[in-house]
Amino acid sequence: MKITFLGTGVAIPQPGRVQSGMIIEIDSKPILFDCGGGVLNRIFESSYDHTDIDTIVLSHLHLDHVSDVLCLIKANWLCDKTDVTIYGPKGTQQWISGLLEVYDYMQGNVDISVTEVAAGEVFAPDGVNCNITCASGVHSVPSLGYRIESGGATVVYSGDTEPCGPIMNLCGDVDVLVHECSFPIGFEVTNHTTPDMLAGYMDEHGQDINVDRLYLTHLYPHMQGHEGESVELLQQYFKRGAWVASDLLEIEV
Ligand SMILES: [Zn+2]
Ligand SMILES: [Zn+2]
């Protein structure tokens, strides 16, 4: 597998980080996880073409994770790529149907298939040799995290969440954990993660968690200048260490 981080930021703009999105490539097939604002342009800047993308997996429907989905579908349509399959939590079908009511000129021109998934389910996009397991995060709206397994490699993506049992229970024998880290050490927050919240979780439950590498993503502007101390605090809990992801960073898994 190969991970390409496209957007490692959030709803508030900041230099160098667009909203959420990453590609996980499995057997040469790129699967897009989340597609917030700016991600379509990051795909252009990456080693992929936007028309390569016909499979999208959404963690939740907050704007910073979905606002470029219809833009991507439109861009693909203009380049004669009209089919797309979207996996996402309950509400994804209604969300897409609502958009197509507003942008009714797209109806009949694009072929959008939506599959709603739920915590505990395992799915595999058509023709992709993998298992994707869903778990619920702790967030202000229903949000899913995913464990992606293929060919002996495993990646977990937390979606938006506090450090929590359902997501971390996906983390037995994992090569890469991509966990959100919205705010710096000591910041008081719920429904999101700070480095000390994740460290606290690992102190309590780390014996059950077996992860090679941690990559932090979903950084608010508040995290600027606090990347080093975050990595320093967290690297001890992960076999090969911890990093802060950046837009367009590629890692082999
Ligand atoms: Zn969110
Ligand atoms: Zn978010």
Explain what the structure shows:
With 253 residues, the chain is of the alpha/beta class. The protein has one domain (2-252): Ribonuclease Z/Hydroxyacylglutathione hydrolase-like (Metallo-beta-lactamase, Chain A). The protein is built from 7 helices and 14 strands. It has helices at 39-45, 63-66, 69-78, 92-102, 165-168, 195-205, 227-234; strands at residues 2-7, 21-26, 29-33, 55-57, 83-88, 111-116, 122-123, 131-136, 144-150, 153-157, 174-180, 211-217, 241-244, 250-252. It is globular. The N and C termini lie close together (5 Å).
Global mean pLDDT = 98
Secondary structure category: alpha/beta
Binned, the helix content reads: 10-25%
CATH class: Alpha Beta
> What is the element string, with H for helices and E for strands?
EEEHEHHEHEEEEEHEHEHEE
Main sheet: strand order: 6-5-4-3-2-1-14
Shape: globular
Q: What are the low-pLDDT stretches, counting only 5+ consecutive residues below 50?
A: none
Main sheet: strands, sense, barrel: 7 strands, mixed
Tell how many strands the DSSP assignment holds.
Answer: 14
CATH 4th-level superfamily: Ribonuclease Z/Hydroxyacylglutathione hydrolase-like
Q: How much is the radius of gyration in Å? A: 17 Å
What is the count of helical runs? 7
Strand content: 25-35%
Q: What is the level-2 CATH architecture name?
A: 4-Layer Sandwich
In CATH, the topology is named Metallo-beta-lactamase, Chain A
In short:
By secondary structure, the protein is α/β, with parallel strands linked by helices. The chain has helices at residues 39-45, 63-66, 69-78, 92-102, 165-168, 195-205, 227-234; strands at residues 2-7, 21-26, 29-33, 55-57, 83-88, 111-116, 122-123, 131-136, 144-150, 153-157, 174-180, 211-217, 241-244, 250-252.
